[in-house]
Amino acid sequence: MPHSLDLKLSPELESVRLKIEATLKPFIRIIPKPLEKQQLTLWQSKFGGLPYLPKSHQYPTDNQGNPLFLLAQINFDEVPFLNGFPTTGILQFYIADDDVFGIDFDHQTLQQNFRILYFPEVLQREDYLLTDFSFLPESTPQFFPLSTTCSLQFEAGYEPVGTSDYQFDEHFGEQFFEQFGDLEDSICDEYIEHFSSDGHKLGGYAYFTQNDPRLYLPEAHHYWLLLQMDTDDAIDMMWGDSGVGNFFIKEEDLRRLDFSNVLYNWDCC
Is 11-267 a CATH 2.120.10.30 domain? Predict the structure, then answer.
């Protein structure tokens, strides 16, 4: 883990630089690029598009039997190493085409209208895979947050805790910015500008437009950020009114490659 941030800070934040650096956590930044003429294979990492799915596996559906839609597919053979995360295999995130993006806000781990699938072994053979997706609607899903298919690139990095992650108060206290007196708002804005935790990523700290749902869980510390997908004009992705989607998993489940209890959340302004 790096011991310093290569970043110029105001004198006020410079005075707490070591406390900020103590929160540094590794993550993988995801850089999506809309497809133009090129096509992705079924096993490549992507936002949207068609999934890698063995013919022996049933295509995921919602509680009404309607097909779910691929939100994201991560092929870990393409991803830099991130401690605790898989090093191989394909992880998929599906959601329903409804006005709440497949979430049950009262039961956020109930995989009825969203689904997480993991395939530990990836066979790059189209004869082994489902290739006929004619059962899916030809038109873009009405409520889907993404209207295009994107290829993905990945970059390893480190980030300090953002102000919207529940862990910020644990590290700095609820009244952290009050110590700066009349500069409270400007220092808070500076911190958010440098360390907002927004964007698309695997691991690291989570970003919210409202509240961190883990605050209300007795086992909050056990939940790691698995995947975050943010509103992004460049790829025409929008969660409600400029919101963000997050998926969380208990550390022990992730190490067992058990994705049956993933907590799904999205919020917006």
Answer: no
